[in-house]
Amino acid sequence: MRALGRTLLANYSLLVALVAYELISRSGLVSPRLIPSLVVIGEQLWRYMLNGDLPYHAGISLYRAFSGFLLAAVVGIALGAAMARSRWVEALFEPIFTFGYPIPKISLYPIFIFVFGLGTGSKVALVFLECLYPIAIHAMAGMRATDRVLVWAAENMGASRTQLFFRVMVPAALPTLFTGLRIALPVSLIVTLLTEIIGESKGLGYFITFASASFEYGRAMAAFVVVAVIGFALDRFVVALRRRVVFWLKDVPAIG
Amino acid sequence: MARPPRWVGALVPLLLVAVWEIAARRGDAPEYLPAPSVILAELGALVASGDLFVHAAASLYRALGAFAIGAVTGAAVGLAAGTLRAVERFYEPIISLTYPVPKIAALPIVFAWFGLGDVSKIVIITISVFYPIYIAAFFGAKGTSRVHVWAARNMGAGRWQIFRRIVLPSALPQLFNGLRVGLALSFIVMVVAELVASQRGLGYLIAFSEEQTRFDIMYAAILTIGVLGFAADRVLLAVRRRALKGQLLATAEAR
Amino acid sequence: MTGAAPAAGAVIAVRNLGKTFTRDGRRVEAMRGFDLKIAEGEFVTVVGPSGCGKSTFLHMVGGFEPVTEGELLVDGRKVRGPGPDRGVVFQEFALFPWRTVAENVTWALEIAGRPRAERDAVAERLLAKVGLTQFRQHYPAELSGGMKQRVAIARTLAFDPRILLMDEPFGALDAQNRELMQEDLQVLWNETRKTVLFITHDIDEAIYLADRVVVFTARPGRVKADVRIDLPRPRAIEIKKSTAYTAYRNRIWDLLRDEVLLARREEG
């Protein structure tokens, strides 16, 4: 009980924000339809969770996000490793990355629809492309940053190139790699939602858009809450995973 | 292993463009991939007619305007939170809770609240840009070496002086990293917001041209966005180089 | 008694060795015209001012830095890269933070496919030798600098290299532990009589451990003097108080002092 009290006190600004929101909602300054009371949001959340709608759409969004993310992880790590190993591979690929980064690949989405059709394929492809960059760059940086002395020590003890790669460079690269994964994971979710907002009939992005278009803002915000919880939980998951896998480092460094 | 020459980086893109051009000319390319020469021609036409300028200006106004607001607020709040415990205790819970939340999901709601014009776009871009800059400023300020602060105190510096002369310069490198991320993000969110709902701007141009199946216009718009984003990034890097003059010398950057 | 090492049966033979680094267009000459011969079973220590290239020399013998001028032969053959025949103890420890102490010690055996029982036995024996038996399941991050250094030494001894290349291996230890480790190393070496190239800043340490002390000049590094240490073995730590010892120390410091001043002047 005391621990709960202490947590609430530490996060008092959240409570203040929630209370302020509720007050604004009830004050009548703006139409309560636009700024639904927390009670209404809660009620909509309850209803649409129970009838299975929200879980269904959430599942679809998650499936798309994860598929693209995992694909990007596999390819990104392989690509990053190749770039770390060979300066030529790096010279070939790095400019594409650097120049392609500021281009919102979402603008290529119409092309993807042409190639992959309107459904999940085009979305997964876009997620893959957007997540690839941070993962590959961090994989490469992580392996590049392997302490020279560790490589020398391994060579001194007679390690083959394969042994050197898997037993020294990969573990040494893990911390940085996890930073890349931590950055890419929310990107996968964002891109998925985006494609669903732009044009779809399934997924949380669609759900929010449809609710907004029907002026059911309580419902839209309830879905937003689900999105928020998912995003938050995923991030915590990655942090916990990192703590277990990269057990030899104490602190989780800041993002970016 | 010899260091590959600089121009190697241009090989793959040039090759791709060449293959693309040849395939398009021969009629082998699908409908949605017009020849690069056609795209460039259309780009020229858009520039000549002044259309490109109108759309680009609208987009830049939103992106850069929102970036400026988000950068100033993010840096200010972040630096304050990194320096003063009380500020940190207020902001940290909210920020770390909402950071992993895809703010894009609020897009329909933001449109509902602020309409479909410039304001809503600037709002969503500002919110998106705020986060990475806040985080960078926060950790940059927090990372200020304690010993440096003690040395300053030892020499009689006051609180504001310590902030301006020790914390701020210490935080600048990391702050600039955040600014770079924020700048790229402002372009991305701008395009996204315009794709969903707008009547002007490069993102609008993409959506419009796609509807009209004028893919040459679409690629011209995409190219313009890329170039503008790249240029903006270069400008920021130049500013960064001046602002961080002495500090970069000790790093691998100074080559 | 300055004298050249016996040429016959030289394990490490260096002739006119030079090393130039190019760092963004600027050339830094670390070594020039450097000659040295080390015979089988000799313990040779190298002292010199900072930046004189002694670590670079060790890295070249170890096969990490390529030879740019001159000749460097180990067992009559050119050095072609690192290998377990020349075991290195690095100044920076170079322990793998994701393995335990015991796993670090037996890493070379593990990648060579030695069976678990053998590896466990080796780990136990060597950790006892360096006094870290209780820490065999700990991770390097949990150890102090001195302890990490001892693990690094144990690791190199584990794969029993013919030649030992030690780069300031006791640098991270406090003065008391340093003396103890010097004694232990001396005892160990007496048992096995490996060929050792040992770099240090500490003249006392250099004299105590060595058959020969090589004094490097300031950059670009060359051999300034090669002092044969004729003190009886085995050497108890008390030998450091003897008059013969003090004579060596004075002599070597005289040789070294000029170089240190030169190096300082060069720095500006």
Structural notes for this entry:
- With 256 residues, chain A is mainly alpha-helical.
- Helices cover 80% and strands 0% of the residues of chain A.
- Chain A has two domains: 1-35; 36-245, MetI-like (MetI-like fold), CATH 1.10.3720.
- Chain A is built from eleven helices and no strands.
- Chain B has 255 residues and is mostly helical.
- Chain B has one domain (57-245): Orthogonal Bundle (MetI-like fold).
- Chain B has helices at 8-25, 36-49, 51-83, 85-98, 107-114, 118-142, 146-154, 159-196, 202-211, 215-243.
- The mean pLDDT of chain B is 85.
- Helices cover 36% and strands 25% of the residues of chain C.
- Chain C is globular and about 50 Å long.
- Mean pLDDT of chain C is 87; it is low at 1-8.
- Chain C folds into two domains: 1-80 and 165-268, 3-Layer(aba) Sandwich (Rossmann fold), CATH 3.40.50.300; 86-160, no CATH class.
- In chain C, the strands form two sheets. In chain C, strands 6-7-8-3-9-10 form a six-stranded mixed β-sheet, sandwiched between helices. Chain C has a four-stranded antiparallel β-sheet with strand order 2-1-4-5, with helices on one face.
- Chain C has helices at 54-62, 101-105, 107-111, 116-129, 145-158, 175-192, 203-209, 243-267; strands at 10-23, 26-39, 43-47, 69-74, 77-78, 86-89, 163-167, 195-199, 212-216, 223-228.
- With 268 residues, chain C is of the alpha/beta class.
- Chains in contact: A-B, A-C.
- Chains A and B meet through α2, α5, α6, α9 and α10 of A and α1, α4, α5, α6 and α8 of B.
Helical coverage of chain B, percent range = over 70%
Oligomer: heterotrimer
Q: Give the helices and strands of chain C as they follow along the chain.
A: EEEHEEEHHHHEHEHEEH
| Beginning-to-end CA distance, first to last residue of chain C | 35 Å
Class derived from helix and strand content of chain C: alpha/beta
Please state the structural category of chain B. Answer: mainly alpha
Number of domains of chain B: 1
Number of domains of chain C: 2
Helix/strand order of chain B: HHHHHHHHHH
Could you tell me which chain pair has the largest interface and how many residues each side has? A-B, 59 and 62 residues
CATH secondary-structure class of chain B: Mainly Alpha
The name CATH uses for the topology of the largest domain in chain C is Rossmann fold
**Morphology call of chain B:** globular
In CATH, the homologous superfamily of chain B goes by the name: MetI-like
